């Protein structure tokens, strides 16, 4: 049984985000998180959130249910915040989809690991921003196991879109609803989105993201991911420059 002191300490670090017609989201933080980015150590403010699947949630009840919730059986998303994110005039935001192979293992079959590290550096250099790490976005929302099957299809000649379709999935099954609700809880002013995909930007705007522009993030091109990147441009509408296309063609 948790002591009243523990409950009081943790309740002060928890915010319940409510929205009519939707389950409550419990947002926890900030936790001071020092991160090594190349030659710099930068301290971010780390938040996590949990969709409670309920409404009118009380913080004390949420804390009581934790030992039986088996949260380790499924992942939760989080966000790294830098600077005075709530009040700064210019803030960068990266909605980063989890990539087990690229972010953790450093796989060269995609550019996700590069984009993760580069986006954090861009946010730090800007002086204000947030990187949302979205745990249910693996393989554009199909999950890690299905992603491994999609990789096998790619080794047989399918591109990324064809592989997802071959498994019965849409090209992109990701939802940003929860992330946008959390963003609204942290900041009300417009943000600049770090992305190469104008369709993603428009989709996020339709879902309520307040943004005035976006910044592209290209790099880490190799022979292993050249078709992956080319498919992003040809089939997913990612914006790029003539120089980037030449580099991809040479890759």
What CATH calls the topology is Rossmann fold
Question: What is the name of the CATH class?
Answer: Alpha Beta
- Secondary-structure class: alpha/beta
Principal-axes shape call: globular
SSE order in H/E notation?
A: HEEEHEEHHEHHHHEHEHH
Please describe the biggest sheet, giving its number of strands, its sense, and whether it closes into a barrel: 8 strands, mixed
Mean pLDDT: 85
Which CATH architecture would you pick?
A: 3-Layer(aba) Sandwich
Instruction: Round the Cα radius of gyration to an integer and report it.
Output: 19 Å
Q: Count every beta strand, where a strand is a DSSP E run of 2 or more residues.
A: 8
CATH superfamily: GTP cyclohydrolase II
Across the major sheet, the strand order is 1-2-3-4-6-5-7-8
Task: Estimate the helix proportion, in percent.
Answer: 25-40%
Number of helices: 11
Proportion of strand residues: 15-25%
What's the N-to-C terminus distance?
Answer: 58 Å
